[in-house]
Amino acid sequence: MIDDIFRAAENVADEAEVFFARTEAISADLKQDKIAIGSKSSGSGIIIRIIKDGKIGVSCTDNPQTWKRCLDAACASAKFADPLTWKGLPEPADVDKRPLALDKRIKTDPYLVTDIISQLKAGSEAYKADITSGSASVAISSHTIANSNGLNYSTTGTQVHVSLEMIAGQSTGYESDTSWNLDQINPQETGEKASFFAAKGQGGEEIETKTYDVILSPMAVSQLLDAAIIPALSGRNVHTGRSVFAGKVGDYVAGEYISLIDDPMDPRGVANSAWDGEGMPVKKNPFIENGVLRSFAYDLRTAYRYDETPTASAVRTGQSGAPAIGNHNLILSGPEFDIFEDKALFVHDLIGAHTANPMSGDFSVELSSPFFAYDGELQEPVRTGMMSGNIFEILYRIQGCSKETRTLGSVIVPSVRLSDIAIIGRG
Amino acid sequence: MPVSCRYYDVRRVTGEVTQVDVDNGRVEQAGTSFFDKAVIRVLGDKGWGVFSVSGEEAEFEKLPESFIKEAYSASLVTNIHIPIQETPSSIHPVPSMKENPADVSLEEKVSILLDMYKATEGPDIVSRRINYIEKDEKVTFSDCYGNSYNYGLCRCGFSVLLVASRAGIVQMGYERDHTISGLNIRHRQDLAREATERAGRLLDAKPAKGGILRAVLDPELAGVFAHEAVGHASEGDLVKEGSSILKGKIDEQIGSPLLTIVDDPSLPEFGFCPVDDEGTETKRTEIIQKGILKSYLHSRETLASVGFGDAGHCRGMPGVEPIVRMSNTFIENGDSSYDEIISECRSGILLKGSRGGQVDPGRGMFQFNAEFGYLIEDGECTTMVRDVSLSGEILQTLHTISLIGDDLALHPGYCGKVGQTVPVTDGSPHLLLDKAVVGGCDID
Question: What is the ipTM for the molecules in this complex?
Answer without folding.
Answer: 0.94
